[in-house]
Specification:
Layout: H1 22-127, H2 133-159, H3 165-186, H4 195-226, H5 237-243, H6 245-258, H7 263-277, H8 280-289, H9 295-298, H10 308-319, E1 330-333, E2 346-349, H11 360-364, H12 366-382, H13 389-396, H14 402-419
Antiparallel strand pairs: 1-2
Length: about 425
């Protein structure tokens, strides 16, 4: 049977699709929607993946930057710490330099002369005694170290408060023995001096002399720090001794007796002593006798303070010509006024001139005593009485203060007269 001749059967329609194929179109559209939604979801996922990747990349970069910053900070801190440690070590070294220099200045000037003496003793042992070099070195070391040991014992005994005379004598004995040996081997015929012999002998004594001087200096320094030695007295200089010999000698005596440590305090004490005893010679005699400077003379007198109005009124009263007191105790005071405004004289009632009785508190106050003295002096001068500084000192029990009050009152009178002159009209 020929297959090609077989007529095909008619295609049967899909029983579900219907007549117009509406269901097939709906399936294709829904497929496209699903595929589009899937593509959108995939795009969103890819976008989110890329965003997350970018975010992680940024965070990783920030973490790396932060780690690098921390490493830089750590390196900077370590560098600063190293710099600070070097600076501290440098400061410590410079702080130790003065002490190291002091030790070097102490050790080297003593060590080198002793080394020269050591070499001389080695030559003495080899040339005079006929020893070998090794034995000569041991001999010189034993002798020099014995000298240093006894000198150290002298230092320790003096530091402990002992006199150390025995140890000092032993030190000088060892030094003398070393000097004799060093001079011996280099001396000429008949023990005649030569340059080499004298040099070796001097080097043997130089080390001990330097040690002795340094020991005395340190011992006196320690005694002065402990208060067992008086402080250094002040120096007044050649100019003061030349121009103010008397006052300088007095200040030197006071510093020597009372223990003043500064030139200023001794000089002020000398002035106070002269003020208390009257003259420089009397003050020197009193200081030699052991007299004490009165405390009242040590306190400087304080001039009283007066208001401007009171000063003007007092000066005008002093400048006025004195009037005799009236029998009834009244005093007529004529005030100086300008010529174009004449005024009648003013009658003021004043009590009889007498010193006011000060209270115990006012007696102790220099200001109160000065005010009372000035008031009393002005009243007496206004009454026409003659008054002296000595009389004021006797009246108020002061010393050399009445002259200052009278001098101040006399200086105010010309200023008051000048102030009372009439002014020119322009």
């Amino acid at each position: 049977m020929d297959i090609t001749a077989h007529t095909p059967e008619a295609e049967q329609p899909d029983p579900v699709a219907g007549q117009n194929g509406a269901h097939a179109l709906s399936a294709r559209a829904s497929g496209r929607v699903v595929r589009a939604e899937q593509r959108r979801i995939d795009a969103d996922a890819e976008l989110e993946r890329r965003a997350k990747t970018a975010r992680l990349t940024i965070e990783l970069r920030q973490e790396r930057r932060a780690a690098a910053r921390r490493e830089r900070q750590i390196r900077d801190k370590e560098r600063r710490d190293r710099t600070e440690r070097r600076r501290v070590r440098r400061r410590a070294v410079w702080a130790r330099m003065p002490r190291a220099a002091e030790r070097a200045l102490f050790v080297l000037p003593i060590l080198f002369p002793m080394a020269v003496a050591w070499a001389g003793q080695i030559q003495f042992a080899t040339q005079v005694m006929g020893w070998s070099t090794a034995g000569a070195v041991v001999f010189a070391a034993g002798f020099e170290l014995s000298t240093a040991y006894v000198a150290r014992l002298d230092w320790l005994s003096r530091a402990a408060g002992d006199g150390g005379v025995l140890f000092r004598a032993a030190t000088w004995a060892f030094a003398a023995g070393a000097a004799v040996m060093n001079y011996w081997h280099a001396a000429g015929p008949g023990f005649a001096p030569t340059g080499e012999a004298v040099s070796y002998g001097l080097m043997s004594m130089t080390g001990v002399v330097l040690w002795e001087l340094w020991s005395i200096f340190k011992h006196r320094q320690a005694m002065r720090a402990e208060g067992r030695l008086t402080a250094v007295r002040p120096r007044f200089g050649a100019a003061r001794w030349l121009h103010f010999r008397g006052m300088t000698h007095l200040a030197w005596l006071i510093a020597l007796r009372d223990g003043h440590t500064t030139t200023r305090s001794a000089w002020q004490a000398a002035f106070t002593a002269v003020k208390a005893f009257g003259t420089v010679r009397a003050a020197r005699k009193a200081i030699r006798r052991g007299a004490q400077i009165p405390e009242r003379a040590n306190k400087p007198s304080i001039p009283p303070r007066i208001s401007v109005a009171a000063e003007t009124a007092n000066a005008a009263a002093i400048a006025a010509p004195p009037k005799p007191p009236q029998p009834n105790g009244q005093l007529v005071l004529t005030w100086h006024e300008p010529a174009d405004t004449p005024k009648p004289p003013v009658v003021a009632t004043l009590p009889p001139p007498s010193a006011p009785a000060p209270t115990p508190a006012e007696k102790k106050s220099p200001v109160a005593v000065g005010t009372q003295m000035e008031t009393f002096a002005r009243e007496r001068l206004a009454a026409g009485d003659k008054l002296s500084g000595a009389a004021l000192d006797r009246q108020f029990g002061t010393h050399d203060y009445g002259r200052k009050v009278l001098r101040r009152i006399a200086a105010e009178a010309p200023r008051a007269q000048a102030g009372n002159k009439p002014r020119r009209r322009r």
